[in-house]
Specification:
Elements (H helix, E strand, L loop, with lengths): L1 E5 L2 E4 L4 E8 L6 E8 L6 E6 L11 E3 L7 E6 L4 E6 L8 E9 L12 E2 L3 E6 L1
Parallel strand pairs: 2-11
Antiparallel strand pairs: 1-3, 3-8, 4-5, 4-9, 5-6, 7-8, 9-10, 9-11
Length: 128
Amino acid sequence: VQLQASGGGLVQAGGSLRLSCAASGLTLSRHTMGWFRQAPGKEREFVAASRWDDGTTNAGTANYADSVKGRFTISRDNPKNTVYLQMNSLKPEDTAVYYCASDYRGERSTLSSEYDYWGQGTQVTVSS
């Protein structure tokens, strides 16, 4: 299994970025996908998660950290095996390395320990 995160960069406060996470070696629809981030000197923290497709109305439902609600949107394209994180109204405190992770048939956990596979991370820097 490989998760390849991309799309990070340097942006001014108030700007937008879209991160992508391309998955290989797994069937994306069977995995809850999460985004986490880690700022220098801080612990890794949950950002957003999108639930796996269990054939019910819960498929693809999302949850977010309070700090990003209303600004970030997680989405997924299962046929393309890709997950996205659209980040709008970025703030300097959003600066971090962003990681995508997969959790087989997971329940959108906010705990990093629940996730099985991790991407390598992509740096997001927001200048004030």
